[in-house]
Amino acid sequence: MLDSIKIKLQYLLPKQGLTRLAGWGADKRAATLTHWVIRAFARFYNVDMKEAQNPDLKSYATFNEFFVRPLREGARPVVSGLDMLCLPADGAVSQLGAITGGKLFQAKGHFYSLEALLAGNYLLAEQFKDGQFATVYLAPRDYHRVHMPCDGVLREMIYVPGDLFSVNPLTAANVPNLFARNERVICVFDTEFGPMVQILVGATIVGSIETVWAGCVTPPREGIIKRWTYPAAGEEDAIALEKGQEMGRFKLGSTVINLFAANQVRFMPNLSNGTVTRMGEPFAEALRAPAAAAEPVVAEASVTTEAPAGVATAEPQAPKDY
What we know:
alpha+beta, 9-stranded antiparallel beta sheet, 18 strands
C-alpha cells in the first residue's frame, strides 16, 4: 500500500517545480543552516567522508559543493589493461545485458525502446542493434561524479527534455518507459572497439547535470532537444577523454546508462542486478578481432589530449571548477 502511494504521488506532485526549488536551495550559501543540512544528510545516508578529498563537513559553503565533492587521491584505482573497461560510477547495477529486438530491460515486466531512449534517432539506435547495455543507479549516499569507462573521443552530445520521475528501484519497477521519458544527456563517443554511449539520466530533485566539456547542460529546461557535434579524432579541438577521467556529474541523484555495439564487449561475470559498483573497478572486457596470423600483435599506447568543445548548435554555460 505504501509503495502504491509513493508511485501515485510521483505522478501528482509538481516534479519540475520541486526540482527547481531544490536546485535553488542546494546552491545557496546559508552558513549555519547549510552546515546543519549537510550534517543531517551525511548522518542519515551514512556518507563515508573518509573517502573525500576534504572530509571536513563545515568546509563546504553550499550543499552542492558537498554533494559533488571530489574523492581523495587513490580512493578509486582504475583497472589497468588496454582491453579492460572500468565502471563509470559508484552505485548499484539496476540492469545489464543484451539489447534484444531494439528493447532494453528496465525491471520485471518492463522493457523500453532503444530508439525512444535515444530520442528517436534511428540512425544512432541502429549502431547499437543487438548490442549490450548497463544501467547503474546512484543512491544519495554515493559519489556523484561520473567517469569514462574507456578511452574515447566525443562525437556528439544530445540534451533530451522530459519528466523528472525518481529513478530508484521502486520507481523503475512501476513506471513504464522510465529512462526513455525522463530528462537526459546523451553523450556519444568513438572508441577503439566501436561506438559507445554514456547517458546521464535526470530525476526528481536533480538540480543539474553537467559535463566537463560544456559545464551546466541543464538547467535551463527549455523543453526542446538540443544537439552539439564535435571534431573527430585527430582533428583540431577534438575532445579526447581517458579511461577513468571524469566526464560529468549530477547535483543530486540519478542514473547512468551505457550502450555498446554488438560483439564489442563482455561484461564482468560478477555483475548482475543489485551488484554494488565502485568507479574504476572492472566493468567489461573489449572483444577485439583476432590479429592476422602473419602479423605480430603490437600493443600501442593510446595518446589523448583534452580540448575545448568544437561545433555546437547551442552554447552551454562554461564549466566552473573542473
